[in-house]
Specification:
There is one protein chain. This protein is mainly alpha-helical. The protein has one domain: Four Helix Bundle (Hemerythrin (Met), subunit A), CATH 1.20.120.1760. Helix content is 71%, strand content 0%. The protein is globular, with a radius of gyration of 18 Å. The N terminus is likely disordered.
């Protein structure tokens, strides 16, 4: 996997002894960083499908729970792929593609799935997906222009995903009388508006650094 080590997303969990042991184990058994990145894509696609399936009313709570678990597995894979790359010291010519493309597809799948979830709004799902892509694009553009470390929020990837996870866990465990609360709609509004603020902050950061 190829990536810019100086522009790695700051994730405190990387320093956790369990995370380090897990990355070391994966490296020893020969699981590559690109394979882990590919798994993150499968987790993201699965989460999107599970979110959409909540609208069928059949075992909806299980779909919400599965969606939350798959999103967390996606985030775990996102963390471990970089750690395994560092552990093995191996890079590949297509490593950056494996690092970025699964993330972008996963974001789109999860937010569109959230838009078609029970008591949600497809329009808000599409809006959140588009804004997530724009936020990630602005970081990539900034890197290309020499501005690194553009992980500022308030709605960077981790914050967006954890917001969806919390909502999923609410619907998976809340009493039946609370199931009609439009929590996901509120959440998508917050995520979309937060992502818009994040986009503007990243643009301003790029302009500020380029202007000296």
């Amino acid at each position: 996997m190829s990536y810019q080590s100086k522009d790695r997303r700051p994730i405190p969990a990387r320093d956790n002894p369990m995370s380090k042991r897990t990355a070391g184990f994966l490296a020893r058994v020969g699981i590559s960083a690109n394979t882990i990145s590919s798994l993150s894509l499968l987790f993201g696609l699965g989460a999107g499908v599970c979110l959409a399936m909540t609208s069928t009313q059949a075992i909806a709570r299980i779909w919400w729970l599965l969606a939350a678990m798959l999103i967390l597995l996606r985030l775990l894979a996102n963390m471990l792929d970089g750690m395994v790359a560092v552990e093995t010291g191996k890079t590949s010519a297509v490593g950056e593609l494996f690092n970025e493309v699964p993330d972008r597809i996963s974001d789109v799948a999860i937010f569109i799935g959230a838009g078609f979830a029970a008591a949600s709004s497809p329009h808000l799902g599409y809006a959140a997906a588009i804004l997530a892509l724009l936020v990630a694009y602005m970081r990539a553009l900034g890197n290309q222009m020499g501005v690194i470390g553009l992980f500022i929020g308030p709605m960077s990837k981790q914050q967006r995903m954890f917001a969806i996870v919390i909502i999923c866990l609410f619907y998976a465990s809340a009493p039946a009388a609370w199931q009609s609360l439009p929590l996901l709609i509120w959440g998508l509004w917050i995520i979309s508006l937060g992502a818009l603020v994040t986009l503007i902050r990243r643009i301003r950061r790029i302009v500020k650094e380029l202007n000296g």
